[in-house]
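Action item from last meeting closed. Structure (119 res):
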């Protein structure tokens, strides 16, 4: 399986359980790996056979900007579902970083892997 990735995708959204978090957008940073067979795209040099990472990123940006979840677990799960269901991606690994959420830590978040990663 080939891996297509988006790294360091920064998006502002409402995320968190505290009152101030419900009023102020915070930046989440996404690193996404997507398992996808690129064989036909590599053979033909035709975008119709590729995973269009621009379309994936635009869809995720739009979704995250409009969302208002309490937990990073829920937001991460919904992002993975979109990628798998709308873009026919069998395996996704997502790291969502809510920078600065914990005093004294530069990074905090979740890494989620869904689907079967085939060789």
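Sequence:
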């Amino acid at each position: 399986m080939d891996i297509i990735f988006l790294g360091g995708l920064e998006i502002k959204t409402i995320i968190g359980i505290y009152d101030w978090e419900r009023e102020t957008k915070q930046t989440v940073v996404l690193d996404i790996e997507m398992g996808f067979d690129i064989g036909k795209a590599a053979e033909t040099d035709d975008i119709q056979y590729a995973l269009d990472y621009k379309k994936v990123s635009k869809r995720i940006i739009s979704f995250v900007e409009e969302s208002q979840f309490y937990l990073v677990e829920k937001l991460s799960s919904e992002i993975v579902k979109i990628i798998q269901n709308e873009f026919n991606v069998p395996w996704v690994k997502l790291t969502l970083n809510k920078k600065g959420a914990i005093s004294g830590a530069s990074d905090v978040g979740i890494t989620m892997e869904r689907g079967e990663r085939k060789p």
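Note appended to the action item: The CA atoms of residues 2 and 36 lie 5 Å apart.
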